[in-house]
């Protein structure tokens, strides 16, 4: 099985966030990593707090950040919101949960498999909050699948125009060896319509290192486009990095609506390895765009990962992610709580 992941508990005490004063300006800074142990980090802004959802402790947990503090999220309050059942199709290898707010409810989408840990049985599942509290309680709504009901992981939800979509990574058949990206329309937050449409295969060199993989799709939506950022190549290698699809038009279920960037849009450097499978949010005051992603602890570390944050910008209407920022000071997000005494 290629994708068994380390999903240890959040190491709160190991948080390496640094807040310092830079000269007389009182500008606060931080240093990556912002969380010492992390896989596939998904962060969403909820009012004056950020929420980090993780697969940990035999289930799924949500960490609520200190107020107006993205880079200090590891110091927040953590709540176990769901525990894996002792039997059934979703009792082992819980991967890459995501948290979404839809019509006054919270939904957690996650991949899981049967109790024997057989990777071929991985499917997507969904939890629904009973009320409007992201910390639960949650109801298990079971599997969320298209009519083909094949191997599926890394599902994400987004809206464009007046339609809601679900994108995920799946095998083209019934055996491991390649992962593609598929999309389907959602008729509700827990239901997909029809068969998934293939929108990306790993055909480019940067997508085929060690194994041809497209996974971890994340949508950045503007008025007229969807930038679907995905992770490419084998996740356990230094070559893991981001690719990007750009979708536009009235029907994102039409494969011709999507155009692939010809090169990786975020790749390893001399000191950051395997950057990928993260999420996108904004600064506390909403003036800046930020990305949160994992990277390998060192070259060759595989799934031994940590969580990083950095700002991204735009160029000619397209996200510009730059290069991964390693262990050096960066300004904290705009509007983040200032350092004491500043």
CATH class division: Mainly Beta
Unreliable residue runs: 1-25
Query: CATH topology, what is it called?
Result: Tachylectin-2, Chain A
Give the fraction of residues assigned to helices.
Answer: under 10%
CATH-assigned homologous superfamily: Glycosyl hydrolase domain, family 43
General description of the model:
It is a single chain. By secondary structure, the chain is mainly β. The chain contains no helices and 23 strands. The strands form six sheets. The protein has a four-stranded antiparallel β-sheet, with no helix packed on it. Strands 7-8-9-10 form a four-stranded antiparallel β-sheet, with no helix packed on it. Strands 11-12-13-14 form a four-stranded antiparallel β-sheet, with no helix packed on it. The protein is globular. Residues 1-25 have low confidence and may be disordered.
């Amino acid at each position: 099985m290629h994708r068994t992941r380390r999903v240890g508990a959040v190491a709160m005490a190991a948080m390496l966030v640094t807040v310092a004063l830079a000269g007389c300006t009182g500008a606060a800074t931080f240093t990556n990593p912002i969380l010492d142990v992390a896989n596939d980090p998904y962060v969403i802004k909820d009012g004056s707090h950020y929420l980090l959802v993780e697969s940990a402790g035999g289930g799924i947990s949500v960490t609520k950040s200190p107020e107006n503090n993205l880079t200090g999220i590891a110091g927040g309050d953590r709540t176990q919101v769901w525990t894996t059942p002792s039997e059934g199709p979703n009792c082992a290898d819980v991967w890459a949960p995501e948290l979404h707010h839809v019509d006054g409810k919270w939904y957690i989408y996650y991949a899981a498999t049967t109790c024997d840990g057989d990777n071929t049985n991985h499917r997507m599942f969904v939890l629904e909050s009973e009320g409007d509290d992201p910390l639960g309680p949650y109801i298990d709504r079971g599997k969320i699948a298209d009519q083909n009901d094949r191997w599926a992981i890394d599902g994400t939800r987004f809206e464009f125009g007046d339609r809601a979509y679900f994108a995920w990574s799946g095998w083209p058949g019934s055996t491991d060896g390649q992962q593609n990206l598929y999309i389907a329309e959602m008729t509700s937050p827990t239901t997909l319509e029809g068969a998934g449409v293939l929108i990306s295969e790993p055909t480019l060199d940067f997508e085929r290192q060690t194994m041809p993989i497209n996974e971890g799709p994340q949508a950045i939506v503007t008025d007229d486009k969807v930038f679907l950022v995905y992770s490419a190549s084998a996740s356990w290698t230094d070559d893991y990095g981001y690719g990007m699809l750009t979708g536009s038009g009235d029907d994102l279920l039409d494969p011709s609506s999507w155009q692939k960037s010809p090169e990786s849009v975020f790749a390893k450097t001399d000191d950051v390895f395997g950057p990928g499978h993260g999420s996108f949010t904004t600064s506390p005051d909403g003036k800046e765009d930020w990305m949160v992603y994992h990277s390998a602890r060192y070259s060759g570390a595989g799934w031994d990962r940590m969580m990083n944050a950095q700002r991204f910008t735009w160029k000619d209407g397209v996200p510009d992610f730059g290069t991964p920022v390693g262990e050096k000071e960066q300004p904290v997000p705009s509007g983040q709580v200032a350092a004491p005494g500043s």
